[in-house]
Each structure stands twice: as structure tokens, then as C-alpha cells.
Amino acid sequence: MKRNITYLGMAALLIAALGAGYWLGNRGHGAGAGGTENHAHDTDKPARKILFYRNPMGLPDTSPTPKLDSMGMDYLPVYEGEEESSGLVNLSTEKIQKLGVRTETAALRNLGRSIRAVGITQINEQKLYSVAPRFEAWIDRLYVNTTGQYVQKDQELMEVYSPELSSAQAEYTAAAQAGLKILADASLERLRNWGIDESQVGELSLSAKPRQSVTLRAPAAGIVLEKNAVQGMRFMAGETLYKIADLSTVWITAEIFEQDLAFVKTGQNAKIRINAYPDQKFSTKIAYIYPTLSNQTRTTQIRLELANRQGLLKPGMYAEVQLDTAGKSQVIAIPNSAVIDSGTRKVALVEVSEGRFEPRELELGMSSDDYVEVISGVGEGEKVVTRANFLIDAESNLKAALSGLKPAN
């Protein structure tokens, strides 16, 4: 009897539990349906703001409007709050003022440049003369006996005695007196071939007897650079007795670096400053560009010719040469100060909107003293940072490094 009562009590409890579960299940289902409706209502948020569109291949290029890249791929939208992941740097107005950020607009410019080089004054090789007689002789009398002495053209240098000359003169005199014109003319021609000037040859033709000595004269006006002649000495045919340089014009040779050669040409104007005369200005043109390049210095020499009628310029003087070159047709250019050069790549910071800066990798062309040509990376009219760009770039690199440490979702 007791056992039956127990079974009936357990059955009642089981029915009560099942009824409570059914009621709770229906309630939970209703709440769940209501919750679903509320959740759908909660996710119905306003659309996020698109700031700009970035290159789908990760290249440093953005656009304010949707567009396609060169492969036909859509540029990806960057939403508000995602600027850091795109490499942008946000700066407040206060921070921009504190850093002293300055920007300048990329614009079309005609890039000219000034090339500066160091030069040295040299003797004009085209006005260098050597006195080297074509016959053997002895120096009887020396008139010019000091190195550095100035001589005029045809000035007497020395009196010499030569047995060969005396023999030729005697032969001429004898032939002339005997009326042997052909032999006499041959003797005079031999004297001319030995370098005896025409005035002395004319004197010989009027002389009744041979002269014992011959006068050697200066071939040009100039300074005696070398004097090997000594009174009483014997010299052989072809031996150099004097070297004379005409310094009325001098050469200046300057070294031009390899990367500047494209902007240098013959006939180009040049300004010259001589260290010995800092208050005087000299100007001339490029006379010649040498055809070889030094492997050690990676430079090529150019030659300038400068008048020196007052004799102020002396061989060996140092000079500063400035060449002003005209640039090619107008190109997009930015200031040199806007370029951050890491050694492996060149970057500029572009202001995409107020307070937001984007690093762009650059491909650069020719440069002038203040500006550099941009082939790709920055477009005309875009603003680039010219001051405090290293600080902004450092902050950009730091944010990129920190974003790489974030755990994946």
C-alpha cells in the first residue's frame, strides 16, 4: 500500500516538472522571438562614413572617390576609425602648431640648377713654345738668362756658332759670286730648313763673306718657364734651350661630377671667382669638355679660357666655377626638404585632409637647388609636408609597428 502511494507521488512530481518546463519553454521562445526583433532593431545602425579609397594592391595611392586601378580592381573604402591601418597619421591642430608643420603644393616648375666646381688655372697649351734649334752649335753670348723673364716676340735670346751653318754660308757666298744660282738657292734653302729666320737669310744674301755666328730669337711674346741654356755650352740638334709661355690667356680646368654631365655643354656661360681676388668677377664660356671620366673621382674635366691681359692670373691658382643650367620643360616638382630618403626608398608626406597625412613612396627625376622632379607618387596640386616631416614619419612608423602587434580577431 505504501509502495503505491510512493509511486503516485513520484508520478505527480514528474507531471508537475514537465508542465513547468513546457511553460518556461514557451516563455523563453516568446522572449527569444522578442529578443530577435530587438537585436535586429539594434543592428540597424547608420552607415559608417567613408573617408577615402585606397589602392587594392597596397600601393601608396588614395582617391577621394571610387575608381579602378591599372588592373581594373576597385579601390577599397577606408572608413572613419580605420585611418591608422591605412598608414595615415592624424594630428590635432594643437600638435601641428607645436611641431611647426609646414606644407607646400606640388606644382609645375622649370627646374634650372647651379653646378659648382673647383678649378685650377693652367697655361694655355696652344700658346706654349719651345726653343730647340735643328743644328748643333755652341752658345757664344746669352741675352736672356733668367727663368720667369718676360720676352717680346723676335727678341734676341743668344748668339751661337755652328760649323754646319758656317759651311752652308760659305757655300752660298762662293756660289753667288760664281754666278751659280741653282747652287746658291740650294744653300739658302738648307739654311731655312735649319730654322734660320728669313731676316737673317736676307742678310746672308747681301753679305760678301760668311758670318761666324747666328742669332736665335724668341718665337713669341711670353714668360720664360724653363731655361736650360748656359753661356759657352754646347747643345745638340733638337735640345730644348727655352720654354716660353704666352700668358695673355689662361685655361681653367674644373672637375664636373658624373651626375651633372647631362646639364653641361660647350659654349655654356660660366662665372669664375679666383681665390686670390675675391672682389673681382670673371666670366667666360665652356671651351671644351674632355672625353674621359676619372674612375677614382667619377668626374670629367671641362676647360674654360680666360683673358689675362693684366697678368693677374697665374698658373696654379685655385678658382671656383659656377654654371647656371636651364631645366627641361615644366615638370611636377616638390621642395627638396619634402623628401625623406631612407637610403632604400624616398617618401613624402601628403596632406590628404586637414590634420591627416599619408606617406607616399616617390619616384624622382632631376633636381635643382631647391626643388626636385616627381615622376610618380605625388600629383599636381597635392600638399606635401616640408617641415617636421621626419617627426610625422616617425609617428607613422611607430603606429604601423604597433598595429602589427595587435592580436588577430
Give a written overview of the molecule.
The chain has 409 residues and is an alpha+beta fold. The chain has 5 domains: 1-44; 46-82, no CATH class; 85-110 and 329-403, conserved putative lor/sdh protein from methanococcus maripaludis s2 fold; 114-125 and 247-325, Elongation Factor Tu (Ef-tu), domain 3, CATH 2.40.30; 134-239, OB fold (Dihydrolipoamide Acetyltransferase, E2P), CATH 2.40.50.100. It contains 6 helices and 27 strands. It has helices at residues 2-42, 93-99, 163-178, 181-193, 198-206, 389-403; strands at 50-54, 62-63, 76-79, 89-90, 102-105, 107-109, 113-123, 128-131, 137-142, 150-151, 156-161, 214-217, 222-227, 234-235, 242-245, 249-257, 269-274, 282-289, 299-307, 318-325, 331-335, 340-341, 346-353, 356-361, 363-367, 371-376, 383-387. Strands 4, 5, 22, 23, 24 and 27 form a 6-stranded antiparallel beta sheet that branches. The chain has a 6-stranded antiparallel beta barrel with strand order 7-16-19-18-17-20. The longest helix is centred in the N-terminal third of the chain and has 41 residues, at 2-42. The chain starts with a helix and ends in a 6-residue tail after the last helix. The model is unreliable at 4-8, 13-18, 21-42 and 401-409 (pLDDT under 50).
